Amino acid sequence: MTKRPTVSALVASQPIPRMFQVRQMFPRPKIEEAHISSFIDELLSQDTFTSHIKPGMSIAITAGSRGIANIALITKSIVDFVKSKGASPFIVPAMGSHGGATAHGQLEILAAYHITEDYDGLSPSFFDGSH
């Protein structure tokens, strides 16, 4: 059996550039849970959004599974805003292959995050978009 050279031996003649440690810090602003609904309402009240919401419209609200803090409250706040404009919101699971890439599996994941028709005040048909 032939002995293979180690990585150190393979790169021994290669010049190694100077290195230094870098730490990247991202700002992580936090909205207190008590202020989430009013924050969402303020954002969605901008003309950019409200000008597109008309009474009687059906509006899909996507919900994913990427570990967003307070996702159930955020989703409910969006649902409440859309309802306040006279439109009919419905929840659409939007998470690719999570939950076995099936609507049923994804609805189970959303339920684990407390995103349910009961919590969001939607009928089951408006929860899964089958209306």
Provide the structure class.
mainly alpha
The amount of helix comes to 25-40%
Q: What best-fitting shape do the alpha-carbon axes yield?
A: elongated
Total number of helices = 7
Strand runs, count: 2
Q: What's the average pLDDT?
A: 86
Q: Terminal Cα separation, in Å?
A: 69 Å
Biggest sheet features: 2 strands, parallel
Report the order of strands and helices: HHHEHEHHH
For the biggest β-sheet, the strand order reads 1-2
Low confidence ranges:
none
Rounded to an integer in angstroms, the radius of gyration calculated over CA atoms is 24 Å
Number of domains: 1
What is the percentage of strand-forming residues? 5-15%
Explain the overall architecture:
The chain is mainly alpha-helical. The protein has one domain (32-128). It has seven helices and two strands; from the N terminus they run αααβαβααα. The protein has helices at residues 7-10, 36-44, 47-50, 71-84, 103-112, 117-120, 124-128, and strands at 58-63, 88-93. A two-stranded parallel ribbon has the order 1-2. Strand 1, helix 4 and strand 2 form a beta-alpha-beta unit. Helix 2 packs across helix 4 (71-84). The longest helix is centred in the middle third of the chain and has 14 residues, at 71-84. The termini are far apart.
SSE layout:
Elements: H1 7-10, H2 36-44, H3 47-50, E1 58-63, H4 71-84, E2 88-93, H5 103-112, H6 117-120, H7 124-128
